[in-house]
């Protein structure tokens, strides 16, 4: 009987850890560069602000509202990302790219 209670106690403690929901945030701008080797995306928001984001195996990539792969990501495209923090890294949940390379924001 003690073993049963011990197992139930351990499971009760473990359940919230599995049920944690990742809080996400959004960021938008223009792709400054994409490094396919490290799967790192640098997004420039304006002249003095940029963010660095990492694609994961579960990241959803959309190109003009159609599912795509990482090959659709090129510098100069407008982009919106939904991401979560994992330590100090910004991990991409969803990335939406629009326009072709060379579509840049006004300076």
What are its keywords?
single chain; alpha+beta; OB fold (Dihydrolipoamide Acetyltransferase, E2P); five-stranded mixed barrel; disordered C terminus
Spatial strand sequence of the major β-sheet:
1-2-3-6-5
Structural class: alpha+beta
Quickly count the helices.
1
Spell the H/E element sequence.
HEEEEEE
Terminus-to-terminus distance:
71 Å
Helix fraction bin: 10-25%
Radius of gyration: 19 Å
Q: In the CATH hierarchy, what is the superfamily?
A: Copper binding periplasmic protein CusF
CATH topology: OB fold (Dihydrolipoamide Acetyltransferase, E2P)
- Tell me the count of domains: 1
Per CATH, the class reads Mainly Beta
Largest sheet: 5 strands, mixed, barrel
Named at the architecture level, the CATH assignment is Beta Barrel
